[in-house]
Write a structure and sequence with these properties.
Chain lengths: ~350, ~350
């Protein structure tokens, strides 16, 4: 399979990272996704793996010349829908950074296109493939905490210097769609349940000159089966903190509580239940890599860790969560959408 | 000053705990606050301090005979208002467990009574007087994290076996009023700001036979100055956890993040800012004891840590937070109530 890259504003290099796991994949070319986009990081990462990416100046030219099997869509966050649609209609599978769409109309149209073309579209929900969060998922699936009742997620990032397109909702999409969506995925991952209502808040105050960008946001979800969940998102992680992120996941069950969080360095998993005291970190399990899993899924080797259905449900939930913050009201979802790909 | 006790369903013994700090205080008597209430724990705690409490069978009899200066009101959580009012009107200061009232009508009437009688009424917001949370407050007041932008609070308790009155809202009052109110106090403490809107969720499912008692609850607050806050409350802390509670406070500021949480045992305070790396716990400061501070306040020796105004504002905010969960809607507070005690 041949892979091309459209932009690199986010996690495109996760496709390259799986190279050694995917001997049948060729990474051939890239092109910028907006005028002046710098693709040096993508080229450097590729070169370290012995790959030279041919750079085109425009998407159509690249697609015509390369005819890739997979397009990595990593452009400005609010501009993915037309590109994803174009690729799918050209018979190309799409590996796009989240969000795959920033409004419901685009999302439902994208769903229609995926159904019609039969091509695969995955969002880069990288958190499912991080050792610690994956370990939490597996332990819960194995009954470590009984029935899940409540989930608390934290996304905290260093702000650093963000590209100019973060300053406008029109190109950035919004912090709930760019950051909190990871937490939405984590919550859906550990509960297996859908959101019935969501309430969010957000603020762009004191955002160090980043225009409309919301620097803090919260969401509260009520899920099926009376499960409650909270999300806290911020870009205020101090510059001299030892890591870019301070992401946390706490899952409260009827028979135990499990958490993944940084304590003094790298993420640990701690579990308190009848047979674990919470003092000894749990040995972490090794998941496959996300792009590896995507390619295997296209080939029919399905792991079940992630899917197109999850991709659409995460985007749907995040869009509704952002709608709540924008309208300052509770959004109720009487019947969870059934994104079906049978 | 003479102190008497009405019931012991909660934190009455915090009044006894300050005994050595208060040589001028005499603890003389107690009486049950509902038929069959067992006061053994109160008597045992008193005896360990060399105090014998005379036990009366009814409140009126105790007040007539003892004429206390302070009544410790620690009865069933939803039944405080008439007792507090009776004591205040009898010229007695009141040290009551939270909540001091469970509806706005009682709360405003209580405010009127306090204003008219000039007596002092404090709720037992013990968290302000815990070393770790007090240390967080002092560091923030000293500018350690710049401007506060977001607060995350967790209240997590072991369920154990709860008295029967927890099973009914009528006597219990509700989990937001009994537990989340501590977090409301923490949020108000570290921001110095009032709540402009609140949204809460709660669930009584899977509560191990505890009737109407909500076993999980969340609240999201928007405060003055675009500050956001979240509260997560649960009674699911596993029985074999090393402590009853796992309470946490995380405060995100423009120049740093500070947290108080249990990591491997007792609460630590960690700070990341320009001069702290978050790896070395911060030395904790020693606050006065809450009842000591209450007595000193009555005597005119005001520390400023807590007050009657805070007592009423916490109750007001908690009642609105519970109203949100009960009505399943966002509660907006266009003008924060000014509980004034000049």
């Amino acid at each position: 399979m041949k892979v091309c890259f459209y932009g690199n504003t986010g996690h495109a290099t996760t496709a390259l990272a799986a190279r050694n796991k995917l001997p049948g994949v060729q990474y051939t070319a890239c092109c910028p996704s907006y005028p002046g986009e710098n693709l040096n990081k993508l080229h450097t990462t590729a070169k370290k793996l012995g790959i030279t990416l041919l750079q085109y100046s425009c998407l159509d030219e690249m697609l015509d010349a390369e005819k890739p099997d997979i397009l990595v869509v990593d452009n400005r966050f609010a501009e993915r829908y037309p590109v994803e649609t174009k690729a799918l209609l050209a018979g190309i599978h799409v590996y796009a950074d989240k969000p795959i769409a920033t409004n419901l109309s685009d999302l439902f149209d994208l769903y229609k296109t995926v159904r019609e073309t039969g091509k695969h579209l995955w969002a880069m929900h990288t958190t499912r493939y991080e050792l610690h969060f994956y370990t939490v998922r597996q332990l819960i699936l194995n009954g470590a905490i009984g029935k899940v009742r409540m989930v608390n997620c934290q996304k905290s990032y260093r702000l650093g210097t963000r590209p100019d397109f973060f300053k406008k909702r029109e190109t950035y999409g919004g912090t709930i769609l760019w950051v909190s969506i990871h937490a939405i995925d984590m919550i859906r991952m550990v509960t297996g349940k859908e959101c019935l209502s969501v309430y969010s808040t957000q603020s762009s105050a004191d955002n160090f000159g980043n225009g409309e960008m919301e620097i803090i946001a919260t969401s509260t979800l009520e899920l099926e089966d009376n499960i409650l969940a909270t999300i806290s998102t911020d870009y205020y992680r101090p510059a001299n903190a030892h890591s870019h992120d301070d992401d946390r996941l706490r899952v409260v069950g009827t028979e135990g509580i499990i958490e993944a969080a940084r304590r003094d360095g790298e993420h640990e998993v701690r579990l308190i239940n009848a047979s674990n005291n919470g003092f000894t970190p749990i040995k972490q399990l090794q998941p496959p890599m996300i792009f590896e899993d995507f390619v295997h899924t296209i080939e029919g080797r399905i792991s079940g860790i992630f899917s197109m259905r999850e991709t659409f449900l995460n985007a749907y939930t995040a869009i509704r969560a952002q709608e709540s913050a924008d309208k300052r009201e509770v959004i109720r979802i009487s019947h969870p959408v059934n994104f079906s790909f049978d």
